[in-house]
Write a structure and sequence with these properties.
The chain is mainly α. Helix content is about 45%, strand content about 5%. It is built from 10 helices and 4 strands; from the N terminus they run ααααββαββααααα.
């Protein structure tokens, strides 16, 4: 997961007008059944934003960082549009129907993760819960990590087995958030995803070792050709940690785990990009 910065961006005016018109109809609907029908009948509206949303992640799932190993893309509603489920699966209220056509609530997610998450959106016990009457979602404290929050992607850690886990020094609450997000977005139990991350880690470790050998050789017997080979190898590693690279967070983690300080610095550059 990498941070998706939505600041200063919004869909085109025609789309916003269309979405607001349906949102106004939702507000005027007399029953839950009427609202659900309006949402279902107009689902193509959020689908129209799929290409625009994918631009933010350079064609990757916002949660898994997969290009295609996490199935086809869904426009995921971070706050569920019809029903909202607690940790134990019980329903809470009538969902966040008033956000069904609010693009700020949209995320791009692979079909595998979106189907697993479904209507789950647990909140921390005892904290504020938004409702149709009180639409203040800012004071909610969700369990699920949100890629549009700059601090949330930093809570995840990866290893050479392709696994994803909480950072070692997290407090109890944030550890619970990571575990719940891993489960709900199926970031661990989907083997193609695990295999893809293992492959990125393995390739990154090999490239680091090869680059170090090249640097050692250049130091012992300098030449222009060897220097250029080192440069090309560094560019390859930089490419693996660039934001648009598939599973770049895993590559950054691999670089951070290497004993070479230059590799650790490269990881820091990649994470900041």
């Amino acid at each position: 997961m990498r941070f998706i910065n939505l600041d200063g961006r919004e869909p085109d005016e025609a789309w916003r007008i269309k979405a607001k018109a349906v949102s106004d109809q939702l507000d005027a609907a007399a029953t839950r059944a009427d609202r659900d029908k309006l949402i279902d009948d107009n689902s193509a509206i959020w689908g129209e934003l799929k290409p625009w949303l994918l631009e933010f992640s350079k064609g990757k799932c916002w949660f898994s960082e997969a290009h295609d190993s996490f199935s086809h893309w869904d426009v995921e509603h971070y706050r569920p549009k019809k029903i909202s489920k607690n940790l134990d699966g019980t329903e809470r209220g009538e969902g966040y129907w008033w956000l069904a056509f609010d693009w700020h609530n949209f995320r791009i997610c692979g079909n595998v993760g979106n189907r697993k998450k479904g209507g789950f959106f647990p909140l921390r016990d005892g904290t504020h819960q938004a409702s149709a009457a009180d639409r203040n979602t800012d004071d909610e404290v969700p369990y699920l990590l949100d890629p549009t929050r700059p601090e949330d992607p930093l809570l995840l850690s990866f290893d050479e087995d392709g696994d994803v886990k909480p950072l070692a020094d997290l407090d109890e609450w944030n550890t619970a958030r990571v575990h719940e997000s891993i489960k709900r977005y199926k970031l661990r139990e989907y083997e193609p995803l695990m295999e893809a991350r293992r492959d990125v880690w393995s390739r990154c470790a090999l490239e680091v070792n090869y680059c170090q050998n090249l640097m050692d050789e250049q130091s012992k017997n300098p030449s222009a050709s060897k220097r250029e080979t080192v440069r090309q190898q560094m560019l390859k590693l930089r490419g693996m940690v660039r934001f648009e690279a598939e599973f770049s967070s895993t590559a950054c983690e691999c670089l951070r785990s290497r004993p070479q300080q230059w590799a650790q610095r490269l990881a820091a550059e990649g994470q900041a990009a």
